[in-house]
């Protein structure tokens, strides 16, 4: 691994830790001031005001996130291999590579093979502070692997299996090998309301919001994000 790649990898671990502070609410106003003083980076991305308008982050939160992102990975982009390496650190008992692949492509909305700061904060804004409807739409896009506007059973199985693989064999209670398939069979049957073999966005939204069990299971996705 090159020096730049190592630095990017370490930098995004720090970036993830900053995100964790946002989730838990420990990134206080005073802490934000400290972070700004420590980074001492004069450059600010053009369109910061636009990002503030488009996301649920304040200007100061965006400044902290951007400075951490840019300081540690000067290229300003993350490729899929680095993204996978980062995820592997957070899930040492499982194989996170497949799930990280799907998640990376959900972040890479322009399909360029790299994820920019703007891509990250836009998605994170939805996942951390978006409405239930916004989070569900984003999750639907993740499950719609081939981006044809529908989710079929194979796509749902691929994502669910990737999540179980990432969590590893040390889950409690211990999961049977056919657990992912059973999970998908039950939920797909509930979601595919007209029994045509695919789940539309409307079916997905309706099913998730009317079934507490589905909503609780989707929390697994948000927890591994």
Automatic annotation (TrEMBL):
InterPro entries named among the record's database cross-references: EF-hand-dom_pair, EF_Hand_1_Ca_BS, EF_hand_dom, Recoverin
GO term, biological process aspect, one: regulation of potassium ion transmembrane transport
Subcellular location field: Cell membrane
Family the entry assigns: Belongs to the recoverin family.
Native source species: Myotis myotis
Segments forming domain EF-hand: 95-130, 131-166, 179-214
Main location: membrane
GO molecular-function terms, A-Z: calcium ion binding; potassium channel activity; potassium channel regulator activity; transmembrane transporter binding
GO CC, any one term: voltage-gated potassium channel complex
Keywords (A to Z) from UniProt: Calcium, Cell membrane, Ion channel, Ion transport, Membrane, Metal-binding, Potassium, Potassium channel, Potassium transport, Repeat, Transport, Voltage-gated channel
Name under which the protein is recorded: Potassium voltage-gated channel interacting protein 1
Family matches, as Pfam families: EF-hand_7, EF-hand_8
Domain of life, source organism: Eukaryota
């Amino acid at each position: 691994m090159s020096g730049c790649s190592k630095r990017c990898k370490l930098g995004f671990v720090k970036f993830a830790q900053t995100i964790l502070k946002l989730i838990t609410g420990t990134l206080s106003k005073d802490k934000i001031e400290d972070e700004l003083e420590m980074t001492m980076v004069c450059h600010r991305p053009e369109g910061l005001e636009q990002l503030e308008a488009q996301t649920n982050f304040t200007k100061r939160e965006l400044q902290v996130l951007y400075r951490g992102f840019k300081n540690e990975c000067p290229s300003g982009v993350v490729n899929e291999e680095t993204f996978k390496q980062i995820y592997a650190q957070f899930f040492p008992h499982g194989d996170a590579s497949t799930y990280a692949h799907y998640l990376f492509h959900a972040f890479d909305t322009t399909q360029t093979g790299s994820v920019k700061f703007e891509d990250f904060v836009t998605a994170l804004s939805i996942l951390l502070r978006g409405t239930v409807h916004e989070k569900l739409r984003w999750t639907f896009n993740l499950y719609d692997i081939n981006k044809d506007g529908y989710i079929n059973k194979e796509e749902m199985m691929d994502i669910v299996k990737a999540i179980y693989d990432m969590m590893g064999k040390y889950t409690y209670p211990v999961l049977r090998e056919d657990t992912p398939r059973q999970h998908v069979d039950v939920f797909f049957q509930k979601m595919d309301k007209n029994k045509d073999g695919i789940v539309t966005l409307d079916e997905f939204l309706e099913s998730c919001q009317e079934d507490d069990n589905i909503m609780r299971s989707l929390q697994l996705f948000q927890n591994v994000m």
